[in-house]
Amino acid sequence: MSWSISDTTQSQETIRSQGFLSCFRLNYWGYSTVNYFSPMLRYSSVGTSNCGRDAINEVKILVREAHKQGIEVFLDVVVNHTAEGNEKGPIISFRGIDNSVYYMLAPKGEYYNYSGCGNTFNCNHPIVRQFILDSLRYWVTEFHIDGFRFDLASIMTRGSSLYDAVNVYGKPVKGDSLTTGTPLGYPPLIDMISNDPVLSGVKLIAEAWDAGGLYQVGSFPHWGVWSEWNGKYRDVVRQFIKGTKGLSGAFAQCLCGSPNLYQREGRKPWNSINFICAHDGFTLADLVSYNKKHNLSNGEDNNDGENHNNSWNCGQEGEFVSLPVKRLRKRQMRNFFLCLMVSQGVPMIHMGDEYGHTKGGNNNMYCHDNNINYFWWDKKEAAATDFFRFCCLMTKFRSECECLGLHVFPTAERLQWHGHHPGKPDWSNLWLFP
After folding, report:
1. How many Å apart are CA 190 and CA 188, to the nearest integer?
2. 272-275, strands of its sheet edge to edge
3. pLDDT per residue as tens digits for the range 275-296
4. 33, 50, 175, 330: most buried, per Cβ within 10 A?
5. pLDDT tens per residue across span 328-376
6. pLDDT tens profile 247-274
7. How far is CA 50 from CA 21, 60, 64, 65, 197, in A?
8. What are the φ/ψ torsions at residue 43 (nearest 5 degrees)?
9. Which phi-psi region, left, alpha or beta, contains residue 373 (left: φ > 0; alpha: ψ -120 to 50)?
């Protein structure tokens, strides 16, 4: 279940008239952490009141009231990097405490940049991993947070600058290298989180990749308790629905909860967090409206953001298109949402996709605190008899259909596959992920 608090009621026409190329840019997402034990004051209604303590109480009240409505609250945490940039960045906190402990450093003092943000938090150093554990425990015990989604979680599996398995486990660990940044088979931080008496009772979700090229979807060290953002589900579904050939087998795996990724080692369908879109990338409406990213308003000459989006504009680029293209786009959006709702695993919906929110083709809106990122209540009302109604009905259908929330992967006894003709699926030109 998703929710949003926003004070905007402005329409698309208002947004287009604002001219975002000249607007002020700031860290809207809050992904450059300085203090891991406090909420960002800018997000609160009370601001700096009572030296920030009122903001803490506001978050606690929010979680309490959400729980009364049956809504769990997850915290999106970024322990892969901090706000201090690269080795030439400012001294704000950790660099001044102990630069060599808190960051992954090369021999001459340069920062390893597996995060894409200039630095990499030295997660598996004994001091740093205890610090991260204390922070997570604080949010659970003080705020009653129900779970965490870890941004670029693969960084948490990399060997620290001073990693030594003998000091961690008392003996060498086969397959683990002492090289800084090498992926560890048994990363101490993940081990500690997975087996912590406080954190073992909450839900843990990994974004199982990082900006350094480490991709662990289906292979993230899990101890039986971690779920993953299923990036392979996203990529296969996007390609299949836009018409890429040879994906029928991979698409079938997605519908079944990706057993090719999660069935081994006794994992379950709920280990797969299925999604089509997230805050990072195109919205659902933009996925069917743009072939290319349009990020000029970010001030980086359109060089930022993902280039490989697996999107299709249905024949014309942008918002102002012919009626046949608009109809096709609406059908495609329904196809995407239908697929998400009938797939085994846990469906994740990007807020605003249920009414067709557009960001004008910008797939990296981290720096805009304006209406292009805000929830458009007026457009939601306008979509109440159209796509939003469809999403509500599909969500209701899933919740009422017992076979769509299985705790085990479906077997051949429970499945019937069809192609252009009943009972005759076309499995030719299969492409299955390893």
Report:
1. 6
2. 74-77, 147-150, 203-206, 226-229, 272-275, 346-348
3. 999 999 999 999 999 999 999 9
4. 33
5. 999 999 999 999 999 999 999 999 999 999 999 999 999 999 889 999 9
6. 999 999 999 999 999 998 899 999 999 9
7. 37, 16, 21, 22, 33
8. -85, -10
9. alpha
Rounded Cα distance between 46 and 289, Å, is 39
Compute the 3-state secondary structure of the chain and give helix, strand, coil in percent, each to the nearest 5: 40, 10, 55
pLDDT of res. 31: 87
Q: What residues form DSSP beta bridges with 204?
A: 148, 226
3-state secondary structure of 398: helix
Q: 105 CB contacts (<8 Å, ≥6 apart)?
A: 99, 111, 112, 161, 180
Specify the pTM: 0.89
Helix (H) or strand (E) holding 275: strand 272-275
Q: Which of 385, 327, 392, 398 is nearest to 353 (CA)?
A: 392
Residues recognised as catalytic: 151, 207
Q: How far is CA 286 from CA 131, 252, 289, 377, in A?
A: 40, 25, 5, 18
State the pLDDT confidence band at 12, using cuts at 50, 70 and 90.
very low
